[in-house]
Amino acid sequence: MTVDLQSITEQIRGFGDQIRKREKERQNRIQTALDLFQKYSDDIPFLQKRVEQIIAANRGTRCAKPDCHALNSKFICQHDENNKFTVLASDGSQILPDRHRRVEFDMINISVIKLDKNRRITKPVKISKLLLPDISLSPDERITEDIISLERNTKERQLLCEIGCTETPQVIALSDGPLELFREPQEERLHQTLFKQYAEALKTFTDMGGIFAGYVDRPKADLMIRLLELASLEEADIKKASQLRPLYGVTDTDLFMTILQPGERSGVFLLESNSANHFKTIDERLALSFFYINIGTNSQGNQTLVRVEIPAVISNQSCLMDKLHQTIIEQCKKMGSRPYPYLLHRAHEEALVTFQESTYIEDLLVSSLFSNDTNSRQTSNKQFAKMMSGKRQKYQG
Amino acid sequence: MATIEIGRLLRANTKGCIMGCWVTQLAAPKLGALVRIPLDSLLQCFGIIYDIHIDDDSLVRQLLSADQIDTDVLDDNRTNRNVPVEISILFVGYQQGEFISHLLPPKPPLILDTIFLCNDEEICQFTKTGKFGYFRHILRADDLPVEEILTAHLQQANRAHCEAQNPNWINFAMQELISMLRDDYTRLMNVLGTVADAQW
Q1: Nearest CA in chain A to B79
Q2: Are B149 and B72 in contact (CB under 8 A)?
Q3: What is the pLDDT of residue B2?
């Protein structure tokens, strides 16, 4: 064993004491947050004005902004037996560039799986795209990890659009992860182009009447908490709002866990952030919004909250919100003691690239494209040494 | 006569092979069924199905924890998911050109070779050749439910022979079995007991 277990054990013991102290403080902050939540719950005009004030003075503020419902609004899942919405779920995986391989290549693999109106799950549709960094000689087309991730997200949404266009308007498209892109569109031309394509896909789907939703499991966001912090600021402190975090460490989940019962969802809130605002520049209707759902208890008896991001245009249509709510609850129930949308899991299964497949593709590239190279293609010396180490037999004594 | 493709080969050796098939194809193969695997235009192996194996996986186990399993999930797992049914086959002979032999095939088939269910004509042709020598391949498989496999095979072969106006085939087959097992009283009684349980 290469790890100093004694040192690790002592460190864990040390953490234990810190965690206990921290948890006590965190519980105090959660209570403060709950009190603020109740205090400001109905004062929507004040909250909206406060958010605008803060954003004007502090670029980069990231928080929730209430729309029209009280903060503590909650909605029960409406079970409609005639729910004939088609549900699409997409996921993707990627192989990232690795200069230590024999050939540097990237790949994105996307799958979309459909539950049709007759409640049948059809065979998944897949796209695999190979990218070779060696081909590009332009700095504008430099393929980075960000680019690959953005291209993957874009292709997922485009494929959802393509498949969903024949099913609209009654179609819900679920994807894993937020709709928001966490990096702002960079100056590189490729990044900007991909972002526009991504936003256009959302726009097209929304124009067709479909519902795009990003499903975030185990959300760690504190968007609502941030709103409460900003609401409780003194006027004089508005300009230094970004430095004042009295509720830091408390998440939205801590808050809504005490409010939402299994099956219930919160009201919808706008997402204010630099990256989210770029969607508004494409189309106001794409302004990102979100809500929380309590999807039930897991095998440990713990309630499970998830966050769902949607374009703002959906949030005001109660009929569509009900369908989305019902769909998510139904999909999560199918996974039993670990609630998670069944279709999203299947999309993930179908998109996953295994290590064997990745190695096979590398072999194909070497034999097909580089068999005539005068320099034989090998892994880097560092990678070779690592592979040797993995096979060593250490004496256990 | 129409051929029924029931799967493709996953792995093989000289005594038998394992094939994979989709759940939708599973309606065709049964325990004891006679199958053939063409190796080339002149050579094909014959085998008898002795095991049909369906693996579970972690998703299936997780789905079982739900209050109920909806039909869309059931159908998705049976038809869309890449979870093949594995069928084990014992080789019992081969055909080279027009010549049928009850010896083990000279070479095993290759992976992804197609496997077909034998129709009645092919069953009759194979089972009436020689003197039931292929029974020994089944009888010497110690770790298999020999009695069940034999009985299932005899039922299917008997039905094919009756269709071909050869109702006496089953009598000759039973006589040969008794003769083969005359020194193994226990197994003989087990086989006869199982045969008696079957519907003819």
Answers
A1: A123
A2: no
A3: 55
For residues A114 and A102, the answer to whether their CB atoms sit within 8 Å is: no
| DSSP string over A136-191 | ---GGG---HHHHHHHHHHHHHHHHHHHHTTTTTSEEEEEES-SS-SSPPPSSHHH
Give the count of beta carbons closer than 10 Å to the beta carbon of residue A387: 10
Question: CA of B60, closest CA in chain A: separation in Å?
Answer: 9
- Mapping DSSP to helix (H, G, I), strand (E, B) and coil, where does residue A352 land? coil
Q: Could you count the other beta carbons within 10 Å of the beta carbon of residue A242?
A: 13
Vertex A336: Cα angle to A335 and A342 (nearest 5): 10
Is the Cβ pair A119, B70 closer than 8 Å?
yes
- What digits encode the pLDDT tens for the residues A294-319? 999 887 888 899 999 999 999 889 99
Exposure string over A280-313, b if 16+ CB within 10 A, otherwise e: eebbeebbbbbbbbbbbeeeeeebbbbbbbbbbb
Distance from CA of B17 to the nearest CA of A (A): 24
For A155-198, write each residue's pLDDT tens digit.
Answer: 999 999 889 888 766 899 999 999 988 666 666 777 788 888 88
Look at residue B1 in the predicted model and tell me its pLDDT. 44
* Run of H or E residues at A122: none
Q: Is the pLDDT of residue A396 over 50?
A: no
**Is the Cα torsion angle B182, B183, B184, B189 positive or negative in sign?**
positive
Task: Give the tens place of pLDDT for each residue, A124-164.
Answer: 999 999 887 666 656 666 677 888 888 899 999 999 988 98
What is the pLDDT, as a whole number, of residue B175? 94
A156 Rama class: left (phi>0) / alpha (psi -120 to 50) / beta: alpha
Q: How confident is the model at residue A393 (pLDDT cuts 50, 70, 90)?
A: low
- ipTM (interface pTM): 0.80
Query: φ and ψ at B111, to 5 degrees?
Result: -65, 145
Q: Write out chain B residues lying below 8 Å of A122, CB-based.
A: 80
Which contiguous run of DSSP H or E holds residue B53? strand B43-53
Position A334 confidence tier, pLDDT thresholds 50, 70, 90: very high
- Chains A, B: CB contacts under 8 A, how many? 46
Contact A333, B67 (CB under 8 A): yes
